[in-house]
Amino acid sequence: EAVVALGGGRRRAEDRIDPSVGIDRIRLPGERVGRMEPLAFVHAATEEAAEAIAERLAACFTLDEQEADLPAVIHARVSAEERE
User: Fold this and answer.
1) Which of 27, 23, 21 is nearest to 63 (CA)?
2) Fewer CB within a 10 Å sphere, N or C end of the chain?
């Protein structure tokens, strides 16, 4: 949604895409972040757009000094024999 708001995606088929905008190097859940380290990098056409999206993105992060209790990435393994 944030990239679309920057102009890097389409809301409708006829919308133009700006390939110069986007978000990268987004921190992963549970990743340790040092004081004053960026949580993501925003590439925007204007300073105002960058600030608005940075504010929206900041609301998506929760910072805590305790280690995150993350769910397992792999929930189960299914072998070929089990599928038959």
Assistant:
1) 27
2) C
Cβ-in-10-Å burial (0-12, 13-18, 19+) of 84 comes to exposed
User: What's the sign of the alpha-carbon dihedral 77, 25, 29, 53?
Assistant: negative
This model's pTM is above 0.70: yes
Gap between the Cα atoms of 42 and 21, Å rounded: 8
In sequence order, what DSSP letters do the residues of 34-48 get, joined into one string?
A: -TT--S-EEE-SSHH
User: Can you tell me the distance from the alpha carbon of 26 to that of 29, in angstroms, rounded to the nearest whole number?
Assistant: 10
Instruction: Give the pairing of strands 22-24 and 41-43.
Output: antiparallel
Which two structure tokens, joined as six digits, stand for 3? 């990239």
